[in-house]
Specification:
Helix content is 38%, strand content 18%. The chain is built from 13 helices and 11 strands. Helix 1 (17-27) runs antiparallel to helix 11 (218-238) and helix 10 packs antiparallel against helix 11. The longest helix has 21 residues, at 218-238. Its EC number is 3.2.2.3. It is an enzyme of class 3 (hydrolase).
């Protein structure tokens, strides 16, 4: 596929073990061109997310890719962030204590970088959002035309008709900044939401991990060093000997949308109370009598089924042949 045929992708990320996996898969996906990483809090605080993003690009020998640091607070300036370091280790990458990266983030903020790229390549840029949606919401506030200029936003977030993973109501990325998520979902952009109702079907087993360990792949070798803590968390939380591949699934949905099937409707996010972070899907089949907060909102696509074996195979293949 020529340069022109490749999809331009910005990955908004909070690395994160499965973020690392998604970034490596992206860098080894010939269908796409990664034009930047933007960073956000979630698995770790934003400062560390930036450091980890720079570190991963150094491991991949792709320091030509810019990293733009994102917001340190929620869209409503909230500073009490939920950080999932108990899942990914205190450093976000399995407590390997890697040396600090030599690279630095660019001077632009993540939101400014997103707006600039959407203006440079109107309709051609896909944002793959793997953390809370603060940066994407800030880009919309910065440039109200952003939703129309961005090609697509593929976001990892929501729990559609299943329990959340932070609490029964909420999935972690939406829970991280529900106000930002609601802004994004109702912005009118071309949105594809990949929720944990789908990603919980994609598991990497211990046998898969052993296959990665035995392969010569540079990315596979690196990930085997950091996967241990991720396996122990899943064993503890879900009593399973496998890990969920949330981020790589969302990334591959951007690379090859035909790996999933989708339904279309309006999504709103609950921003307060015990269901804060809940994503509600309206299939728009019923005409309601009253004008409400749901009326005339733009629709989005929500993933409903996934070809799990195909996704695991792609992830394995792209990590091992690296």
């Amino acid at each position: 596929m020529g340069e022109a045929g490749r999809k331009k992708i910005v990955i908004d990320t909070d690395p994160g073990i499965d973020d690392a996996m998604a970034i490596f898969v992206a860098l080894n996906s010939p269908e796409i061109e990664v034009i930047g990483l933007t960073t956000i809090y979630g698995n770790v605080y934003t400062t560390l997310a930036t450091r980890n993003a720079l570190h991963l690009l150094e491991i991949a020998e792709r320091t030509d890719i810019p990293v733009a640091e994102g917001s340190h607070v929620t869209i409503t300036k909230g500073t009490k962030l939920r950080i999932a370091d108990f899942v990914h280790g205190a450093d976000g990458l399995g407590n390997q204590n890697f040396p600090p990266p030599k690279g630095k983030p660019i001077d632009q903020s993540a939101a400014a970088f997103l707006v600039e790229q959407a203006n440079l390549y109107p309709g051609k840029v896909t944002v793959v959002a793997l953390g809370p949606l603060t940066n994407v919401a800030l880009a919309i506030q910065l440039d109200p035309a952003f939703p129309k200029k961005i090609g697509q936003i593929v976001l990892l977030g929501g729990a559609f008709s299943v329990n959340g993973n932070v609490n029964p109501a909420a999935e972690a990325n939406i829970f991280g900044d529900p106000d930002a998520a609601d802004i994004v979902f109702t912005s009118g952009a071309d949105i594809l939401a990949v929720g944990i109702n789908v990603t919980h079907q994609i598991v990497l087993t211990e046998a898969d991990q052993n296959k990665l360990a035995l392969s010569k792949g540079k990315y596979a070798q690196y990930l085997c060093k950091i996967l241990g803590i991720y396996f122990s968390y899943h064993h503890e939380a879900y009593s399973t000997q496998a890990v969920y591949l949330h981020d790589p699934t969302a990334l591959l949905a951007a690379v090859n949308p035909s790996l999933l099937t989708y339904t279309e409707g309006v999504v709103r996010v609950q921003t307060s109370g015990i269901t804060r972070g809940l994503t509600i899907f309206d299939n728009t089949k019923k005409r309601y009598g009253e004008i409400t907060e749901w009326s005339d909102k733009p629709t989005v696509k929500v993933a409903v089924t996934v070809d799990a074996p195909a996704i695991v195979e792609l992830v394995m293949e792209r990590l091992m042949n690296s």
